[in-house]
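Lab channel / #folding
Pinned by the channel admin:
"Please post every new chain as: sequence first, then the structure tokens as a reply. Keep commentary short and put observations after the output so the thread stays searchable."

First post following the new format, from NK:
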Amino acid sequence: MGEFSNEVSIQTSSKKRVSVRDVFNISSNMMVTAFEESNDYVPKIDPNYQFNKEVTLAILAGFEHNRRVMLQGMHGTGKSTHIEQIAARLNWPCLRVNLDGNISRLDLIGKDTVTLKEGKQVTEFQEGILPWSLQRPVALIFDEYDAGRPDVMFVIQRVLERDGKLTLLDKNKVISPHADFRLFATANTVGQGDFSGLYRGVQVLNHAQIDRWNIIATLNYLPEEDETNMVLAQVEVNKDIVEGMVSLATFTRKGFVTGEMSTVMSPRTVITWAENYQIFGDLELSFKLSFLNKCQEEERTLVAEYFQRCFDKELVNELAI
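Reply from TO:
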């Protein structure tokens, strides 16, 4: 991960109150705080993004009332993007960290580094991402939260309280959070471990860790009509074809729930299929290259049946190419 200089500050503008109904086009009388202007740390707005009402209100409660919010859901449902797109419309600086196995305690807290000053080597403490963010008006998102290493999770646990302070033992320093610091996380399993085999590498988190998250919301896949519109907003493909693609994706998701499928078509995969269809102009070829080749060989006959139901044509050869 990159280095974060102690000299970097995040300039934010004055604040304003905005209507959730007006900004997010969902039925709610809720008013929330936003910054007047954007900066380099604010995500770019996707004008075609479709907000889930329940999840949007949960995330907005995190921003407005400084609640710790975790989003749970299957891969490809857009958990992190949902938080980012809300931050974008609030002009709230945002930073994402993926808690994969390479993120260590030192990455989070910081470490001593050797630098050159006035031609001399000096040892200075370089703050990690957590104290760096904690002191700034930043929405920090921990992606793949249930994949974090145990030593990393105990560091995060210190700041999960609303006014949680971080103690840097090496520096004999206690950091109090900035008034506009916010903390979010995304996860596939909510710390319960993975029994499906789909999310290998996730950890079982202790109850004290999970209990410190004030709000846990679930983000499911969009209804088929909404998912179709989302794909059409990003890729210029015939609507009937996109509807078939989304229907096939729904079949794979239902097959996963019943144990017939081990691989799922996410909305991201559907978009990739549509994009590849634009490139090749061949529905079957683009499907094989986008999804079928990911499937186990014994599942491809079932996937070919899904294809036939959705497009009323046989998948000529379901073997990988």
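NK: DSSP finds twelve helices and eleven strands in the chain.
TO: also worth noting, The chain has two domains: 15-218, 224-311.
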